[in-house]
What does this fold into?
Amino acid sequence: MSDPPQLRVGVIGYGIMGKAHCYAYRVAPMLRALPVTPVVSVISGRNEAAVAAAAAAYGVPAYTTDWRSLIARDDIAIVDICTPPGTHAEIAQAAAAAGKAVLCEKPLALSYPEAAGALAAVARAGVPHAVGFNYRRLPAVALMHRMVAEGAVGEIRLWRATWLSDEFTDPGIPFDWRFDRAMGGTTIADLGSHLIDLALWLAGGISGVCAQAETFIRARAEAGGGTRPVTVDDAASALLRFRSGALGTIEVARAAVRRPCDFTVEVNGSRGTLVFDYARLNELRYGSADDDAGLYGMRRIRAEHPSHPYAADWWPLGQGVGYGSSFVNQAADLLEGWPDAPWSPGFDQGAQVQAVCDAMEASAAQDRWVAVSEVTGPGAPG
Ligand SMILES: NC(=O)c1ccc[n+]([C@@H]2O[C@H](COP(=O)([O-])OP(=O)(O)OC[C@H]3O[C@@H](n4cnc5c(N)ncnc54)[C@H](O)[C@@H]3O)[C@@H](O)[C@H]2O)c1
It folds into this structure.
């Protein structure tokens, strides 16, 4: 049997996400039978020595310091955007105009209007599009979604999520794009976009938010000397109202000492509770009102049984998967139906997430509840 034909990918950005995506394209065909073999043919970045080193390390045969030249290559079918958020919309629009499929890291853009522009561009071009909300592709999170859809908790009444990290607690960390609002580095957009995506996916549209945000370390040293003001939040939290009538809360922080990347998502429905805790990422906790009262409490589900989402692609029961596996699952999902199956979550979902992020920003700045329709205009999908 001959190998499936190669499908050439260009990855823009060689940092943490450039590495994760290159890894994913390489491993995906080992896990699942795909109609094409993805090959990362070129990678781009601004610093020539660094992008050359990354290309060598990731096994990519060519590199460039000009992302436009990557998009211009006729042999590239997929443009995969792994640069800071402030660059996403421009690159996505250029890639769509060149007829490329576009996978864009989260958040889709700097603002809802920019995200809507990127969505319009991919729709106009008729190209496949997706946003890298990779946590949906963890087996336990995918199982949580399946269980909610199958009615395991009944009607969702409460949704709760936290993401605690200590990424910014050291005042000695120098200024980079993560401290720059113009590059989309806010904590609301960085951590919040993942949680808001999961909220919309699990519990439906959000109608309004009441948020607060704070910057604790207000200036950082610049590489060339001097300091620069930090223009992003170190932490934020919000009350959420879902269209269904459910209530929600979200807390995101890059200012929580000795919390590395601790995130949790919990839903409480009319008949049950489901809890995901990233520190135990192969598990869910579940309790149902229908359980025997003598066993009151929550059971631990190991999301590794072959009947669970993604589990059959991976290791024997009990071995678990990790962060990197979510990117491999993402690549396999996107390529499984190539070229005809639509990609998900698409830029439409990315724009909806952005609208909630923008509503949180406006609410925190104006100290009031903000309806998401104030961002999107009335009648936009939620
Ligand atoms: N899905 C996830 O789990 C996850 C995790 C981390 C980051 N991200 C997202 O991925 C994207 C990239 O994040 P990262 O952590 O890989 O970043 P990084 O800083 O590690 O790498 C950034 C890359 O973009 C390039 N770049 C282009 N224009 C730039 C500019 N104006 N400023 C700085 N760098 C520029 C750099 O050369 C570099 O190759 C962001 O949108 C981020 O939110 C997603």
